[in-house]
Each structure stands twice: as structure tokens, then as C-alpha cells.
């Protein structure tokens, strides 16, 4: 015999339903799942969907998510610092764009971007909101 529970009853038990954000983000972003991929915000998920459309239309050759750039090397067992960008987009003419989808530019983000630009002055990061 199956027991049916309402959404309200499930929430009372602390059960998180798919697509529902139980704890609110400090920056009002909402985790969003598209194609089984969890994105930190709805804006990032929307940008991913736009890239998929551009890929199907042949406007881009491809894209990758969460590319990592080493900012500082770790030493003596300490972990280094990385900057993780949201997307790298590849174009048919051989060029690429590095894109970060941001709603709020936090102090940590500003510091990491500054360090990244000092270490890799030729790399340009584009910000989408």
C-alpha cells in the first residue's frame, strides 16, 4: 500500500524536492538543473541553453564548462588557488571567448579576477549578467 504525502508534508520532513531550493542563497540565486547538470544560478543555466542553440545552428564549434586557471601554486602541502570560469566558447574561425555569468561581483571574485589578469595578461574574461 503506497502512502501519498503532500509537498507541504515532505518539506516538513526536510525532504528536498527536485528543482526546489530549500535554503535561499545569499545572493538570491537559485540552483537550476538542465540536462542533468546543476548550475549555480538560473542565469548560468539560461546561458548554457543559449550556447546549445548556437551550437545546433552552427554559429559556434563548441563550448566547455568550468575551465580552471591556476592563480597561485600550492606549496608545502597547501592547496593552490584556482579561478573557475563558467564557459569557454569556441568559434569556427579559431577564436574563443571566456565567459563568466555573474549576478553579483563579490570581493572574492574581484580579487581572483585581479590575480588572474596579473598572471595571464593576455586572457580576457567577459562578464554576462
Describe this structure in words.
By secondary structure, the chain is α+β, with helices and mostly antiparallel strands. 26% of the residues lie in helices and 26% in strands. The chain has a 4-stranded mixed beta sheet, with helices on one face. It is globular, with a radius of gyration of 19 Å. The model has no long low-confidence stretch (mean pLDDT 80).
Largest sheet: 4 strands, mixed
Order of helices and strands: HEEHEEEEEHE
On the 0-100 scale, what is the average pLDDT? 80
Helix content bin: 25-40%
How are the elements arranged and paired?
Elements: H1 7-12, E1 32-34, E2 37-39, H2 42-56, E3 62-65, E4 68-72, E5 81-84, E6 87-90, E7 96-101, H3 107-119, E8 125-128
Parallel strand pairs: 7-8
Antiparallel strand pairs: 1-2, 3-6, 4-5, 6-7
Label this structure with key terms:
129 residues; alpha+beta; four-stranded mixed sheet; 3 helices; 8 strands
Could you write a compact summary of the structure shown?
The protein is α+β, with helices and mostly antiparallel strands and 129 residues long.
Amino acid at each position: 500500500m503506497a502512502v501519498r504525502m503532500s509537498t507541504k508534508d515532505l518539506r516538513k520532513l526536510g525532504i528536498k524536492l527536485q528543482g526546489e531550493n530549500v535554503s535561499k542563497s545569499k545572493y538570491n540565486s537559485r540552483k537550476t538543473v538542465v540536462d542533468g547538470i546543476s548550475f549555480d544560478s538560473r542565469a548560468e543555466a539560461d546561458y548554457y541553453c543559449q550556447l546549445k542553440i548556437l551550437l545546433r545552428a552552427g554559429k559556434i564549434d563548441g563550448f566547455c564548462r568550468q575551465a580552471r586557471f591556476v592563480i597561485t601554486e600550492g606549496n608545502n602541502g597547501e592547496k593552490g588557488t584556482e579561478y573557475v570560469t563558467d564557459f569557454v566558447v569556441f568559434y569556427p574561425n579559431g577564436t574563443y571567448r571566456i565567459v563568466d555569468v555573474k549576478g553579483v561581483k563579490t570581493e572574492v571574485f574581484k580579487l581572483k579576477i585581479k590575480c588572474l589578469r596579473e598572471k595571464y595578461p593576455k586572457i580576457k574574461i567577459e562578464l554576462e549578467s
